[in-house]
Amino acid sequence: MERKGFNWGVVLGLALLGFSRSMGWALNKGFSFPLLSDYTTSAFVKGSILALEGFIGLLVPPLLGYYSDTLKSRHGRRRPFIFIGGVLAALATLMIWTAYRMGVPLWGFALTLAFLYFSLHLYTAQFRALMPDTVESGQRGKASGVITLLEWAGNLFLFGLGGFLVAKYGKDHIGPFGLTALFLFIAAAFVYYKVREPDAPEIEENESLTEYVKSIFTMRDFLKFYTAQILWWMSFEFIAIFLYGILAFILYGSATQENIDAVTSMGLYLMALFNVAVLLGSLPGGYIYDKVGRRLSIILGGLIFALPQLWGWFIHTEAQIYAALLVAGIGWGALIAASYPVVGDLLTKFEKEAFTGRYYGVYEATKSIPVLLAGTIGGAIVDLAGGNYRILFPIGAVLVLIAMPLIWSMKELEVSEK
Length: 418
Hints:
Blueprint: H1 8-36, H2 43-50, H3 52-69, H4 79-102, H5 106-121, H6 124-134, H7 140-169, H8 175-194, H9 209-218, H10 220-252, H11 257-291, H12 294-312, H13 318-339, H14 342-349, H15 356-384, H16 392-408, H17 411-415
């Protein structure tokens, strides 16, 4: 596969795409829970609807990532998926706002959310695969840092804008939805027309779908990494999905619709702060990955992310909430920037660089399984605990701590550090 070293044009194009996709996911994280709270007070029902993201993400990226590896098209292997997915995701964001304003029943609103999840996951694996397709192994940490920076900047932009508009106009203002749709369309069109994919490699021995799935379980380092990622993303999703319930419980003692409405603007600002912290942690995380070591950089990020969650059980004030999320965000940024290049490096090690789409599809699926589990299990735990959302903090910290020994035992990742 032909490469031209570190191509800033390609990396910035992917960063713009990541920025727009993050706006789409942030719109979901920032507005879906408060809007669903107008339909039901059950944490389990809301969590199960939001868990549709995980169910769709578990199926779509691995399958479409697999087929994009072998796609023969003059438009490229990845770009057709990126353009179609971006256009559909833009349409979906407008449908969500329209459905809510029209007062559709709960099942109808849930379907519009599912359409957004499907649209964004339509090109998830292809977006991820383009980075190792175009960047050499020794420079992927830097590329990951830049892309992660812009991805979380997209979150920051949407959460900051959303917090301002909710405080001024209420949670049903069209501004965040319309602007997200615009960015999703522009970014997908830009990558399709301006980013040139490298020549597709000749695949002499293509893996069958069965062999592809089997290889995940027979190559131990892939299995260890994917398992660890499930654990730390589940920890993240416990907080991300139920943040408004957590805030309402800590500050007001219960997560009623009235209390959730009272903390919606604050929650968006908190998410913005978290993303500022992620930006602070992401660039050093990518640098440390390339210069200091793969395993150590991931473990340091994970520990910094877990410690504020252990403290979360004892938090009672707004100031403590802001401080905990600030520290957790720095750790999360370092963890994500350091873990993103791992799949590409393992593919290089095992001489499977032609298969970036399918293996990054599984990479994304292991981020979707936690959404599915966190939404359903987390909601059930909260309901069984009598609406005590605070219980999600220590459970999340334990999940991260369990993941760290798996990373440390990755032998092939250790070899790549020499």
